[in-house]
Amino acid sequence: MPSLDEAYDRRTFTERNPRRVAGGLAVGAAGAIAVLAAILLVAVGGDAVAAKAQAGVLAGLGIPALLLSVVFVLPASTRKRVGVVAGSALTVVGVWLFWHAYPGRWTRTADSMAFETVMLYAVGAAVALWFVFSALATFRLRNNPAGTVELEVVRHGETKTVEVSRDRYRDIVSDGGDVSQVIEELEK
What we know:
Blueprint: H1 4-7, H2 18-44, H3 48-73, H4 78-101, H5 114-137, E1 148-155, E2 158-165, H6 166-174, H7 179-187
Antiparallel strand pairs: 1-2
Helix pairs in contact: 2-3, 3-4, 3-5, 4-5
C-alpha cells in the first residue's frame, strides 16, 4: 500500500491541470487582496461614503473570487464548478446593484434597494458556498491510487501480496461486494 507521502506526491496525482491550479491560486490571491484592500480602504478612507462604496465593491467581488479559487484548485466535477460560477454570478449582480443603490437608494428612502441587493448577494453566496462545501466533502485524494495498488491479503495465516492496476482496483472495490468475493477476485 502506498505511504501518505506517495499518495500526496504531486508527480503521481495526474488529475490536476497545472494551469488550472495556477489560475485558481491567482484568482484566490486576487480575492484575498481585494478583501484586504476593502478593509484598509474603510479604515483609512478619507471620504466615508466613497470609501464605503468602493470597499463594498472590492469585498463583494473578493469573496466570490475566493470561493471560485477553491473549486478550480481541487479536482471538482463540472457540475460543482458550474454551481460555484452561477452563485458567484449572482453575487456579482448583487455588487452591481449595490454600486447603483449606495448611498442614495440604500436605506431610509421610499424606494430602498438594500434588502433586494443583500438578498441577491446572500443567495448567490449561499449557492456558491454549497457547491464549494460539496466539492470539499467529495474530494478524496488518498483513496485515488496512482498507478498500481499493493494489497496484502492474509488468509488462513498466510500473507500474500497482490498488485492491482488502478482501474481493476476501482472495479473490485466499487461494486460493494462481500469481502471474501473481493479477496477471491484479487487472487485470480
